[in-house]
Amino acid sequence: MAEEITIARPYAEAVFKLAKEKNALSSWSDMLNALTEATSIEQIRTLISDPGIPANKLAEIILEVCENKLDSEGRNLVNLLVENNRLDVLPQLSALYEQLKAQFEEILEANIISAYAISDSQLEKLVSVLENKFKCKIKAKVNIDPELIGGVKIVIGDEVIDSSVRGKLETMSVALKS
Fold first, then answer.
1. pTM of the full predicted structure?
2. Domain end: 103, 130, 147, which one?
């Protein structure tokens, strides 16, 4: 896994640089998503792993599956990845690109895990508090986990804010065992 990320990083950085120069960050997100979806189709995965398929034929098939979702630079990326036998790193390339884009746009992704459903007003208030704390825009994704018992757990990057009942009980358990 780490090797694929290492391989994908220069491609993601090059795509990001190009997208930034052309002021096309969103369209590159769309193109990379379309490519990732296309290459995750089982039949396409089989073709990618088949060394008997000529590179130009494989590129042609992928471009056909993506139809008109790619511009000329997107098609060039497909040809480059096929030529270098790097189609397997498309999911990592796309994820790294999205991270670079989020950093550039100063947007952090927050995974909010709650024991119960959160209303829109509660989510807005929570996002506002997080934006003040982190001094940037927050894009929140909410998941429900009844095992938290109550409260919320927030994961932003490698930072975890755990104010769930379960988290507090675990902390108390550790303290009592010491």
1. 0.68
2. 103
Long-range contacts of residues 160-168, Cβ cutoff 8 Å, at least 24 apart: 164/113, 164/115, 165/115
**Domain holding 95: CATH number?**
1.10.520.20
* Residues 43, 76 within the same domain: yes
Q: Among 96, 46, 116, which Cα is nearest to 62's?
A: 46
Output the pLDDT for position 2: 56
Q: Return the amino acid letter for 63.
A: L
pLDDT at position 165, please?
Answer: 87
Q: What are phi and psi of 143, to 5 degrees?
A: -125, 150
Distance of CA 32 to the CA centre of its chain: 11
Q: Are residues 88 and 35 part of one domain?
A: yes
Total domains present in the chain: 2
Q: Give the tens place of pLDDT for each residue, 99-153.
A: 899 889 888 889 999 999 999 999 999 999 999 988 888 999 999 999 988 889 9
